[in-house]
Amino acid sequence: MKQLLLALLLMLNLPLLAADQGNKTLIIDVRTPVEWDQGHLQNAQHIEWQDIGEKITSVTSNKDKTIYVYCRTGNRSGKAKEILDQLGYSHVINAGGVNEAQAFIDASEATATK
Fold first, then answer.
1. CATH number at residue 108
2. How does pLDDT run along the chain (114 residues), one tens digit per residue?
3. 7, 56, 59, 67: least buried by Cβ within 10 Å?
4. Is 112 in the active site?
């Protein structure tokens, strides 16, 4: 019985554990669903900017995790960054627009690992 209960608890918490494991950085696309469907960065999660305060814990509860946010031009990702900053997330970076975000993230990560 204990093993069954333990297995059930693990299954229920696996999405939360997986969200905080793996890459030490998190990439969030804060654009609309239509924009997301038109293309997004490969490892990105999708949370619209106006929902980020309510939904961030579905992808991470680690407030020290490096989080990159991006949108079409950098405006909405700037708003998302402000929201996350106010919630106590300490390493939120506005990666700007979708066309430049991957290069910006790659350069930032390369600098951070040196």
1. 3.40.250.10
2. 545 433 434 344 444 444 454 557 999 999 999 999 999 999 999 999 999 999 999 999 999 999 999 999 999 999 999 999 999 999 999 999 999 999 999 999 998 877
3. 7
4. no
Residue of 44, 71, 92, 98 marked catalytic: 71
- Rg of the Cα atoms in the chain: 15
Residue labelled with tokens 């997004």? 40
What residues pair up with 68 in beta bridges, in sequence order? 27, 93
Q: Which domain holds residue 47?
A: 2-112
Q: Count of domains in the chain? A: 1
pTM of the predicted model over 0.85: no
